[in-house]
Amino acid sequence: MDIAQIKNSVEQALQDNVFSGCGVGISNKGDNYSFVRGCISHAKNDFITPNTLFDLASLSKPLATTLACLALIKEGKINFEMKLESLLGCSVPDDKKDITLSQLLSHSSGLAAYHPFYKMIEEYPLEKRKDILLKDILQRPLMVEPGTKAIYSDLGFILLSFIIEFQAKVNLDSFVHDRIFAPINIKDICYNPKDKGYTHFAATENCAWRKKEISGVVHDQNTYVLNGVSGQAGLFGSVDSVLSLVVFIKDLVAGKKNHPYLDRELLQEAVTRRGLPKSTCWGLGFDTPSQPGSSAGRFISEKSCGHLGFTGTSFWIDFEKDIAVVLLTNRINPTVDNIKIQEFRPVFHDLVFG
Questions:
Q1: 268-290, pLDDT tens digit by residue?
Q2: What single DSSP character describes residue 31?
Q3: Of 156, 128, 157, the residue nearest 144 (C-alpha)
Q4: Is residue 93 reached through a cis peptide bond, with omega within 30 degrees of 0 on the bond before it?
């Protein structure tokens, strides 16, 4: 692995306006490297630093929501085959009664991919929004019968956050901090970072709905109206904090580390491809590389896992090569129409895993 060549590829991406700023973290067989480049937005001459927090977007799904579910399983409060009614502690429509935790985690629940709930629930008081959203999701028709096909679903992960909060009796933010991050001293990764005293952020979109550039506040609109915390998005982190967490996951799977609330065998199951009919490559909350055409490039091993985030973030772990890589960018600043990262990601990862 040539770190100088990787840095050169990032410099070229900056020149090509793939993003205005980024943080890169790499762990290669136990040796960790990280560097940052560029500005917090295209409009500001304020540079990305190691302390800059990025909106991690859907990296929240594996790094917070999934790990929280695994912690609850280890506690014995839930299990992979537990059904939705028991998971939520409320009645659900007949077409959703047989949806299991594993189907929600593997995007095979049959729920739709997305819906702009924020346009409806922003009119309600904050304390009523979760109940209104839960009822709305449960009443929506399924796209397919549960367990028959993988459809990447934000709705499923919103339900997972409701499940975690019902089972844990605390909010998702507190549970993830207390049970996942704090026991292994992972800092600078959290929800609602402004409320926790952080001040330096990579900006995201110039949002037409909020009529301003978004910085330090979650970009995802559905998560925003849920006070910045949901199962699908909301987590912020610095490149070093995300790398530390991803490396810990790699080492826990390998049996090199222990965690008081996470079980190695459960995590191994989560990062393993499920082999669902008509599936892409989902494990339980984690993605695995598809070939050909993976954003993780041509050289990543089959025994790998990772995830992408809409804001321009990603991580990949190659268990065979003992390599982990984190790429955090602000590619949607100033607009979500910038999709140049789709070409950059596989080229970048080829340099890491090749």
A1: 999 998 766 555 689 999 999 98
A2: E
A3: 156
A4: no
Residue type, 15: Q
Region of residue 322 (phi > 0: left; psi between -120 and 50: alpha; otherwise: beta): left
Burial of 68 (0-12, 13-18, 19+ CB in 10 A): buried
Crossing angle for the helix pair 154-168 and 126-139, nearest 10 degrees?
120
pTM of the model: 0.97
Write out pLDDT tens, residues 240-270. Answer: 999 999 999 999 999 999 999 999 999 999 9
Instruction: Give CA separation, 16 vs 4, 12, 19, in Å.
Output: 18, 6, 8
- Which of 106, 56, 1, 26 has its CA nearest to residue 317? 26
Q: What is the pLDDT of residue 279?
A: 58
Q: Is the Cβ–Cβ distance between 270 and 80 less than 8 Å?
A: no
Nearest Cα neighbor of 112 from 225, 232, 226 is 232
pLDDT tens across 96-151, in order? 999 999 999 999 999 999 999 999 999 999 999 999 999 999 999 999 999 999 99
Nearest residue to 313 (alpha-carbon basis) of 287, 274, 280, 281: 287
In sequence order, what DSSP letters do the residues of 246-314 get, joined into one string?
HHHHHHHHTTS--BTTB-HHHHHHHTS----TT--SB-SS-B---SSS-TT-SS--SSEEEEEETTTEE
Residues with Cβ within 8 Å of 58's Cβ and at least 6 positions away in sequence, in order, are: 232, 233, 307, 308, 309, 310
Angle between helices 3-15 and 341-353 (to 10 degrees): 170
AA letter at 309: G
Residues in the chain, overall count? 354
Are the beta carbons of 216 and 194 closer than 8 angstroms? yes
CATH class of the 3-57+192-213+237-353 domain in this structure: alpha beta
Residues whose CB falls within 8 Å of the CB of residue 158, separated by 6 or more in sequence, listed in order = 133, 137, 222, 230, 231, 232
